[in-house]
Write a structure and sequence with these properties.
The chain is of the alpha+beta class. Helices cover 41% and strands 23% of the residues. The chain has 2 domains: 44 residues; 145 residues, Heat Shock Protein 90 (2-Layer Sandwich), CATH 3.30.565.
């Protein structure tokens, strides 16, 4: 509502508002839109608890492809190459695992300045667990920040440099923990990042 009224003011009184005024209104609309995204993420996070986690057998291969298609549609002018290994069926909360892959893929594209972005997805089949692996050829994460990335609202860049809320990896960590798993990553600055998460088979 705030954004709509600011835009109505610009539309109705734009001929008497100078360039500075229009710039201020644009900042207001951008701020409200960022706030909406942040609140949506907080709502998703607040709903993540062990009491409402329902498990079913899910084909992670289909989840992977669905999210890759969604990411490609979201970045229509970006060249993204996906390379996928064999994905297993997993006992999990399908909606949560879907959100997990989406957030990780979003990071792979968002924090990548290459014209040709490459995202590789694979899974290692262990005796009692699956270890999923998602790697990119992006900007990487400097070693001094690697202990902070899973903290809520922790951002390594400004919103102008890379858009986002700083809550995506916190969601990932929470989802993996609800599945009695663990998430971690390996990265070098300007050499890409590989995220790993393991989830028990049962």
């Amino acid at each position: 509502m705030v954004a709509s009224y600011v835009q109505l003011i610009e539309k109705k009184y734009g001929n008497v508002i100078d360039d500075d005024g229009r710039e201020y209104m644009n900042f207001a609309v951008q701020g409200v839109n960022r706030l909406k995204i942040l609140l949506d993420c907080l709502l998703i996070y607040s709903r993540l608890n062990s009491d409402n986690t329902e498990y079913e057998t899910a084909d992670t291969g289909k989840i992977v492809l669905r999210n890759q298609e969604k990411i490609s549609r979201g970045y229509p002018e970006t060249l993204i190459k996906f390379e996928n290994g064999i994905m297993p069926e997993l006992t999990c909360n399908k909606d949560q695992v879907n959100e997990l892959f989406f957030q990780l893929y979003s990071n792979c594209v968002k924090f990548n300045s290459n014209n040709h972005k490459i995202i590789k997805t694979d899974c290692i089949d262990k005796t009692n667990e699956y270890i999923f692996k998602i790697s990119d050829n992006g900007i990487g994460i400097p070693i001094e920040y690697q202990d902070k990335v899973f903290g809520i609202f922790q951002r390594l860049h400004t919103a102008e440099e890379y858009p986002g809320t700083g809550i995506g990896l916190t969601l990932c960590k929470r989802i993996v923990e609800l599945h009695s798993g663990e998430i971690w990553f390996e990265s070098n600055n300007n050499e890409g990042t590989t995220f790993y998460f393991k989830i028990p088979k049962k």
